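Researcher: Structure prediction, please.
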Amino acid sequence: MHDQQAAHTAGERVPGQKTTVMVTGADRYLGGRLIEMLTGDDTVADVIGVETGALHNGTLSRILHRSKVDTVVHAAVAASAVRSGGRSAQKESNVIGTMHLLAACQRSPAVQRLVVKSSVAAYGASARDPAIFTEDTELRAAPRGDFASDVADVEAYTRGFARRRPDVTVAVLRLAPLLGPTSDTSLTRYFSLPVVPTVMGFDPRVQFLHIEDALDVLHEVTLDRRTGPSGRPEVFNVAGPGVLLLSQAIRRAGRVAAPTPEAMLRAVAAAARGRNIVDFSLDQLDFLRFGRVVDVTKLTEYFGVTPRPTADAFADFVAGHALMSVLGDPETTGDGPSFFDQIRDVIGRKGPESER
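Model: Predicted structure follows.
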């Protein structure tokens, strides 16, 4: 009895005890779906969802203390400034919100496990990149763009938290760009354009992650009870094995590539972002120029989970969005919507899975 009381005081789980989980980003697709999955799990006693706009220090501390939360999943890091209400709101949520969350976790002795949803944007994309990124690859060029900067800050604060709370197991999941049959992201809108602009002279290797595989990995890592390394996060790449060339992906979507000078592409992206039409940041443009491929061996060996291949994830996206070849209907006449009307329709469409 004395041993059990000492373990409980130190924040260690009593054998057979169910877990209590707090998930941030409950108002987003991944966070909301993860809450649904955890609610139906027999090993979970309670699940508390926190919306992205509620990442305030006092609120989080009260929730952690009142509910004796032992596992925290930070799924609120947002890729899109447009969806977040502008760049200021995005940074407030991503960076300041993360600082508030980690401060609350640091003061809560009950917290034993922290899972942070990050992005492969942490690696950046440049001409100096290796063929494949592993979790231990050192950056050769600083990532560009607001979202990549936010990801770097989030991971830096997470490392600081792990040093201050070496008793907490910390896992950082770097997710590849998400695709799914009904997903609505900057990337899915890009591939849905009738004519897809590409960076002239480049045909990068790209890698994707099916949104349902992202959920399965988050669920598996959240409920994993093994103790990680003390004083530092354990980082895992999460992506569909294999690659596609960007030109292959565009053809499989039935679209036509339009090679465009990079300066012109940046100008168009900036104009679209300024009008809150579609959000393509510098890190995404670098991705479309240089590509990015990560190794997922560590994820598979540690958790026994392998996401479906990149090609299969992309095929499911194409099928789910019912993308038809823009060149495949010989009966099309000039009486239909114009090319620019089609573009406005595609980039203005909003689906239920608004995640990157």
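Model: Confidence is low (pLDDT under 50) at residues 1-11, 329-334, 346-351.
Researcher: Thanks, that helps.
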